[in-house]
Design a protein that fits this description.
By secondary structure, this protein is an alpha+beta fold. It has helices at about 65-85, 90-105, and strands at about 10-15, 20-25, 30-35, 40-45, 50-60. It folds into 2 domains: about 1-60, no CATH class; about 65-109. The protein is built from 2 helices and 5 strands. This is Gliding motility protein GldC.
Length: about 110
C-alpha cells in the first residue's frame, strides 16, 4: 500500500512594514481553496527539543472583539482536544471552567 500525503498551505500577504494584511489557506483534502482568514494560531511539537513551536498571525484589520472570540473558541477547542488526546476528564473540565470564566470576564456571554 502506497503512502499518501495531504498538504495544508498558508499564504501571508504583508504590507511594506511586513505586517500581515491578508491571510489565506488551502487544504484541498478538506475542500478549502484560498479561503481568507483574519487570524491563525499554529502549534507544532518538536519532540527532540521537547518544546512547542508556534506561529501566531493576525491581519492588521482584525477587530479586537473578534480576537477575543477567536481566543475563547480556541481555548474551548483545546479543552476538547486535550480530553480526546489524554482522556483526562477532570483536567478537561477544569479547563472548560476557565473558558467559562474567560468568556464572563471578556463579556462574551
Amino acid at each position: 500500500m502506497a503512502n499518501s500525503t495531504s498538504e495544508i498551505k498558508f499564504l501571508v500577504e504583508l504590507d511594506e512594514n511586513r505586517v500581515p494584511e491578508k491571510l489565506t489557506w488551502t487544504a484541498q483534502d478538506g475542500g478549502v481553496d484560498h479561503e481568507e482568514a483574519k487570524a491563525m494560531m499554529v502549534s507544532l511539537w518538536d519532540s527532540k527539543a521537547q518544546e512547542t513551536l508556534r506561529i501566531d498571525l493576525w491581519t492588521k484589520d482584525m477587530p479586537v472583539d473578534e480576537m477575543k472570540l477567536f481566543f475563547h473558541q480556541t481555548l474551548v477547542a483545546m479543552s476538547d482536544t486535550f480530553q480526546r488526546a489524554t482522556n483526562d476528564e477532570k483536567m478537561s473540565a477544569t479547563m472548560k471552567d476557565f473558558c467559562d470564566y474567560f468568556a464572563e470576564k471578556m463579556e462574551l456571554k
